[in-house]
Specification:
Layout: H1 2-55, H2 60-87, E1 95-97, H3 99-112, E2 118-124, E3 131-133, H4 135-151, E4 157-166, E5 170-177, H5 184-189, H6 207-217, E6 221-227, E7 231-239, E8 262-266, H7 270-282, E9 286-290, H8 293-301, E10 308-312, H9 320-330, E11 336-340, H10 345-353, E12 357-361, H11 366-381
Parallel strand pairs: 2-4, 8-9, 8-10, 10-11, 11-12
Antiparallel strand pairs: 1-3, 4-5, 5-7, 6-7
Helix pairs in contact: 1-2, 1-7, 3-4, 4-6, 8-9
Bound molecules: adenosine-5'-diphosphate (ADP) and magnesium ion.
């Protein structure tokens, strides 16, 4: 009987987990779609603003107004970024990280803000294997878990942050509180996006959904244990890395394309085709635009010889990657920047194999363009 019961429980748990994953995935593609469109809108605003700023440096009133527009669109970009975190499967900014260092940093922040009535306990294993991860994303995941823990202890209590190396090549970061805990129904839905038991204005219901998405994106997992009155334990498990730390090459900021480039800009979005050329012209380049992959290939077949192609990934008909594959038949060494809000793993892999292509995160501004142009020409020369 116990065996049967256990099997049934396991089946139910797996079903819940599957349901959870499916829900998060559909939210992910929804968020991804919205983010893509918003990125184009914000990209256009940023491009025009920065072009105007570069052209009217001498006018302080205009400059300050443009600064405000730029700040607002940067805020918009950050918002979109946090949305795309749901949808992203790659980790563009992944680096070797010491979770202990991350815990210490975030706990400094906690001490200065929320931790008046809560005792903070650090239980960090030294040395701890490194993980590959995005510092800011993992930092906000940890912060989300801590905020939940603190929220659950209105009358005070102890918040324990613990790190351990697990036998299966994983590193665990756990957040334990001695707070209210969760009844079964709440625990079952806690990771759902927009599920919250907190009053309007206090909870968004996105905290644990984001932590879960972050864990998955890192190839890890999030485990929650909780009982009413017994507090809550959240375990974030990430794969340990054994990569050589020296393998990371430091980017060299010197040098650049220098000369004026002939750029072919391929984007289905008219807003981008009318705004980004201004930016490129401010940088001293000349621009020809195409509204899609087919049009771009036609231009190239017709004898156009650009020094660089900026190729939007997310286009109807032929995607950027598809266009790139076809373009490579005739132009194996033409420098290409693939512009994308977020990159699918498959595309990222193809890009890595192509020595003359790189990724350009959307939306991009003047300095992103300058840096990416420098980076790709440096890589090609190397
Ligand atoms: P939010 O904090 O905005 O409500 P979360 O996704 O972070 O959204 O959490 C969802 C819900 O899960 C919370 O509203 C709360 O009911 C429950 N929860 C999360 N963490 C804890 C915790 N440490 N202790 C008790 N309940 C928690
Ligand atoms: Mg929360």
């Amino acid at each position: 009987m116990t065996e049967l019961h256990r099997a049934d429980e396991l089946r139910q748990r797996l079903q819940t987990e599957l349901h959870q994953t499916q829900k998060l995935e559909s939210l992910g593609s929804l968020a991804g779609g919205v983010a893509h469109d918003m990125n184009n809108v914000l990209g256009a605003i940023q491009a025009v603003t920065q072009t105007l700023k570069a052209l009217h440096e001498a006018d302080p009133q205009l400059t300050s107004a443009l600064d405000t527009i730029e700040r607002a669109s940067t805020r918009g970009r950050d918002l979109v970024q946090s949305l795309t975190n749901f949808a992203r499967k790659d980790l563009r900014g992944a680096e070797r990280l010491d979770l202990n260092a991350l815990v210490r940093e975030e706990s400094e922040l906690l001490k200065r803000t929320t931790l008046k009535r809560v005792t903070l306990d650090l239980d960090l294993q030294e040395p701890l294997p490194a993980v590959m991860g995005e510092r800011s994303t993992l930092g906000s995941a940890l912060m989300n878990l801590c905020v939940n823990a603190v929220d659950a202890m209105p009358g005070g209590g102890t918040l324990t942050l613990r790190t351990r190396s697990l036998p299966q090549g994983q590193v665990e970061l756990s957040v334990r509180d001695t707070g209210l805990g969760m009844p079964r129904e709440v625990l079952a839905r806690a990771m759902e996006p927009f599920f919250t038991t907190k009053p309007v204005g206090k909870g968004t219901g996105l905290g644990l959904a984001l932590v879960y998405a972050t864990a998955s994106a890192h190839g890890g997992s999030l485990i929650l244990q909780s009982e009413p009155g017994q507090g809550t334990l959240a375990q974030l498990r990430l794969p340990a890395t054994h990569e050589d730390p020296k393998a990371k090459v430091a980017p060299d900021s010197a040098g650049g394309p220098g000369d004026a480039l002939n750029v072919l800009l391929v984007d289905d979005e008219e807003l981008i085709r009318t705004s980004v050329p201004g930016l490129l012209e401010v940088l001293g380049h000349r621009v020809i635009t195409a509204g899609g992959g087919a049009e771009a290939l036609d231009l190239l077949a017709g004898g156009l010889q650009p020094d660089l192609v900026i190729l939007d990934q997310n286009m109807p008909g032929m995607t950027g990657m598809e266009t790139l594959k076809r373009l490579r038949v005739q132009h194996p060494k033409l420098p290409v920047l693939l512009a994308t809000g977020f990159l699918e793993t498959e595309a990222a892999e193809l890009l890595r194999q192509d020595g003359h292509a790189a990724c350009l995160a959307k939306p991009f501004g003047l300095s992103d363009l300058r840096t990416q142009l420098q980076a790709i020409f440096q890589r090609i020369r190397a």
